[in-house]
Amino acid sequence: WIAKPTEKVMATGSHDRMKKAFVAEMKAENIKKFLYNFTRLPHLAGTDENLHLAQQIQTQWEIFGLDLVQLTHYDVLLSYPDKANPNYISIIDERGNEIFNTSLFEPPPPGYETVRNVVPPYSAFSAQGLPEGELVYVNYGRTEDFFKLEREMGINCTGKIVIVRYGKIFRGNKVKNAELAGAKGVILYSDPADYCTPGVDPYPKGWNLPGGGAQRGNVLNLNGAGDPLTPGYPAKEYTYRYDEASGVGLPKIPVHPIGYHDADELLRKVRMHIYSNNKVTRIYNVIGTIKGAMESDRYVILGGHRDSWVFGGIDPQSGAAVVHEIVRSFGKLKKEGWRPRRTVIFASWDAEEFGLLGSTEWAEENAKILQARGVAYINADSSVEGNYTLRIDCTPLMYGLVYKLTKEIPSPDEGFEGKSLYESWYEKNPSTEYKDLPRINKLGSGNDFEVFFQRLGIASGRARYSRNWKVEKYSSYPVYHSIYETYEIVEKFYDPTFKNHLTIAQVRGGLVFELADSVVLPFDCRDYAAALSNYAHIIYNLSQSHQSEVSKYSVTFDPLFSAVKNFTEAAIDFHRRLQQVDISNPIDVRSLNDQLMLLERAFIDPLGLPGRPFYRHIIFAPSSHNKYAGESFPGIYDAMFDIKSKADQHKAWEEVKRQISIAAFTVQAAAGTLKRVA
Amino acid sequence: WIAKPTEKVMATGSHDRMKKAFVAEMKAENIKKFLYNFTRLPHLAGTDENLHLAQQIQTQWEIFGLDLVQLTHYDVLLSYPDKANPNYISIIDERGNEIFNTSLFEPPPPGYETVRNVVPPYSAFSAQGLPEGELVYVNYGRTEDFFKLEREMGINCTGKIVIVRYGKIFRGNKVKNAELAGAKGVILYSDPADYCTPGVDPYPKGWNLPGGGAQRGNVLNLNGAGDPLTPGYPAKEYTYRYDEASGVGLPKIPVHPIGYHDADELLRKVRMHIYSNNKVTRIYNVIGTIKGAMESDRYVILGGHRDSWVFGGIDPQSGAAVVHEIVRSFGKLKKEGWRPRRTVIFASWDAEEFGLLGSTEWAEENAKILQARGVAYINADSSVEGNYTLRIDCTPLMYGLVYKLTKEIPSPDEGFEGKSLYESWYEKNPSTEYKDLPRINKLGSGNDFEVFFQRLGIASGRARYSRNWKVEKYSSYPVYHSIYETYEIVEKFYDPTFKNHLTIAQVRGGLVFELADSVVLPFDCRDYAAALSNYAHIIYNLSQSHQSEVSKYSVTFDPLFSAVKNFTEAAIDFHRRLQQVDISNPIDVRSLNDQLMLLERAFIDPLGLPGRPFYRHIIFAPSSHNKYAGESFPGIYDAMFDIKSKADQHKAWEEVKRQISIAAFTVQAAAGTLKRVA
């Protein structure tokens, strides 16, 4: 721990002393052991093995000392290959004879040859079918890729099978775009350009994806709905289920993923053979609790998923092992008689890989309680997706906390001995928007924080060790969702000493500790104000590429800028009052903390974003244009993006105006929540 | 005040002493003076006169001693007759000559002959037009009336002008039903059978409706949307406005109201002349605040409207005068150094008559704050609609409080000298559902509590002096919304000594006082449990008239009954814990109070009722089948009601099952909010 002298002086005894003890308790060696233990078998959602792991974690968290650890189950729609009828793709000749078939499984990595129940690569929730037809290459399958094909190259995808390379956008969006373009089948493949770093060997010699490896994954378009058959409600015994035809986000055409060796073979005419089945299946979350000493009705949640496509060496177990060590350390302190001020909830989610189902169903079941009592959600999927520097995605409310905390944590990086994590992070990835600060990203989706942040408006954040994005441009780490995600790839290549894992434990655990135990919540509304101002200028600048229409349709951003100004003033005034609060008056502290807790909630519009009822955050939404980012002012952004494709320009611009108005109102209302309460 | 010895012993000094002082301060004579003052001129929403009254009230509330009194304005769609082109209806002969015209105004009552700016009877938001055609009498214009006409009598309304008598359902629903039946115009009239009590003279000799009087009123179908052009958002300067074609709830055909003298004349063929205009108009609420001493971020709201169709002798000024006296009494106590524990907000709403617009826009603007901090809303429209006994509509959470309070208030009724209000109320209107208790009604709509209760889930209640419903079966008091609603009709017939007004001031004021100043919120969740159980049995029994379908489609109410049972157990356990709370621990008290405050919120489904996004309470909704009642389990009820009209019975019953599931989930989740917080 690196603490400046002034911070030491300001330390409030118990809190800082216990934080030190909490951090000192966590060990890299433990995380390593947990990772090893969690990755011996596949833990596919809905399987016995994953239920057994849930039960093991439940038992261990109880032993660690949590007050209560429960399994919560839901019966959700999952999708599995048919063991008797494997999925594959054939090349067919002019007579329809199959002259080549893609592989039915990935060659197992050394040591895992005899492991049973490895699910072969497949696209979960693919439709069944045996379409055959001409193959069209559609690049990444983005909107702009199909535009280019159709408008510039005159290539029509109707009735074709399209082959799409993974990357840039979420695979579910690729499939949706292909469906809209009229395709009757989709082949997803991992291109070496995206999934192999030059000069690096394929696994097991290096950490690149072997040619026989393929990326599993679901191809849904849930937009935050959770279980496709019970949108908006938890998938419990009493819940009404739609039939699959009315389900949310299910693709209507067959989809299958292949590796680059098979992709190289594919010729003009192919036949897909897809026999996967959708099946309502029981899943299990593990929910552990330490009751807060003073405000047991205020919750700080640390959650990450447990289910994996195969061994989950990185995704998710490098995260789950860190959560395990954080729970152990909290439990240790609790056994010694300490409790955090607020309640801490630890969650091991199931079926994240099938559409964030475990977390979403739990949040649906507990929505009222979470909206009333949820202080913050910290996400804990993969701890390492690279070994270069820290990566943080979080609400602007947490910027200050993240910066403060990372200044207290030693950097694990070579060449930064004696320096803080903040220093190495800043040097390796400085912000382009804020001078003299490390980069923090917007929250998008693709992980279990989604329902908490995008639907419920609970302040959220996530932390990982990541790669150098400026140099390594591939779309995720190469072996992502393949059989080669093993314990060994982490132990050999990603983090041999587990020092980066420990750093992530310190960051995630430190965030939880500060959020749960600080008297005044460590949120800064002024940083939200600065972010809003930044986003308002960005969206305004985007509009300026349509200057004549902006003028013709009287589009004005003035109300939005005015609202941001009001918000900024309210935030400054709020923190002025917060400085003066009488800490010995519990109701006054609670009242201000409630304003802080509920600020993120103020950005939720109950009516949701257009056509996306479960994405309700007006400032942030998952981007359908970029897998790796959230969008800011998504309502306005989408309305402006849609202008290109709309025949009725007047109507399209009216929608832009409507969205600006909603954003202005929301920011204005959020400012209102920060004002004096009476 | 009637207090039992034990209650005196239990009195917590200050609270009970101040309550006594608060009640003693209120005088019938003051209410009378305020009513006189408020009824000198018409105060139609959007007029200068109504702005002036807002300013007067603002000034007086400031003088009374409130901390802050502000005008809040909104620019909403209103509707007025065209002064140059009056609306009327003609009888036309076979050649199209107009041989009779309905009257253009009501004969003014004595003393008001020279008052200017009396708006003639009209149906606000009627479409413009001059339809002519055959006249069809459609009774009350209910769904069953049109069914009967079309199915049993073979009368088709397409292309006809329908004449409908007022009563039974909201006039907007009559117009919607007529539109759906294909009518091209609607004439509304007051039938003596509904608006004249036998043996009573028309005003001014008695309180019956004169033959030249007619009932004004809006004919919207807003379903809680507020301003038709800005549904879901406050109608502020920055708000995007839909065009009228996309507005919510606007009728597409001309509508006009007439009295029974004109109705008697109408013959087979008529022509309507409707020139009313819709116009975006500024309206003003008056919002006054007394800041709470301990929990200034908890709000108890007393609100009632100020705008009237003409003089508003009963509606709304008999209510506004009572609010004025309550404000004066609170202000008096405050000037002496006292403050309630929580913040009290007093509201004088504008444009209630045009669709609850003032209250709804204000609640839309402040939704986040109200959801987070709103403890209760007490509605204050007309204090007297009769002089027989008390009428209460409220959330089950308030049953106990209402019973306790009415036992402390002396009965104003003849023959009940020395007895409590509770006793006369119970004797005159006992509950049929709960033995040994007076009747309390469900909250429906038609008044300003709607947005607070049905959209936001804030515990709400209303109190009036009412007629004997068993004897007087007319649909509202006879002169309702006519020019004959004067100060004098109240002073001569309804409440000459203003003792009933004072009683209502004691009830409304007493509710506000107890809600704002009790350490533990005076809500009882066990009464909600009993109500839920009652409603579940009622809806189950309704289903039993379709026993074969219930069996065929496997409809089961078991999950609902099970959820109600869980809720009941949680409520009992909650109140057991509440008994044991350490009153000296402010956080523990606050935490339990938060559970009480948020219980009503737990019944809100963010997805809303089917097709009614702004009615979101799963237990209660305004009934479209009965103007004077709320519906319980409206989702299930509507789905069962719709079965008759659905061709696809399988689908119709699936919807019933879905609605039972949503109700079961909601009750179950509400039970969850009452459990131990960690």
Automatic annotation (TrEMBL), chains A, B:
It catalyses: Release of an unsubstituted, C-terminal glutamyl residue, typically from Ac-Asp-Glu or folylpoly-gamma-glutamates. Residues 132-220 form the PA domain. Its main location: membrane. It is an enzyme of class 3 (hydrolase). GO terms for molecular function: dipeptidase activity; metal ion binding; metallocarboxypeptidase activity. The keyword Acetylation does not apply. Keywords: Calcium, Carboxypeptidase, Cell membrane, Dipeptidase, Glycoprotein, Hydrolase, Membrane, Metal-binding, Metalloprotease, Multifunctional enzyme, Phosphoprotein, Protease, Signal-anchor, Transmembrane, Transmembrane helix, Zinc. InterPro entries: PA_dom_sf, PA_domain, Peptidase_M28, Peptidase_M28B, TFR-like_dimer_dom, TFR-like_dimer_dom_sf. Signal peptide: none annotated. Gene3D superfamilies: 3.50.30.30, Transferrin receptor-like, dimerisation domain, Zn peptidases. It is a single-pass type II membrane protein. Its EC number is 3.4.17.21. It holds the Pfam family Peptidase_M28. It is found in: Cell membrane. GO terms for biological process: proteolysis. One of its GO terms (cellular component) is plasma membrane. Residues 285-488 form the Peptidase M28 domain. Its cofactor is Zn(2+). Belongs to the peptidase M28 family. M28B subfamily. Has both folate hydrolase and N-acetylated-alpha-linked-acidic dipeptidase (NAALADase) activity. Has a preference for tri-alpha-glutamate peptides. In the intestine, required for the uptake of folate. In the brain, modulates excitatory neurotransmission through the hydrolysis of the neuropeptide, N-aceylaspartylglutamate (NAAG), thereby releasing glutamate. Homodimer. This is Glutamate carboxypeptidase 2. The gene is FOLH1.
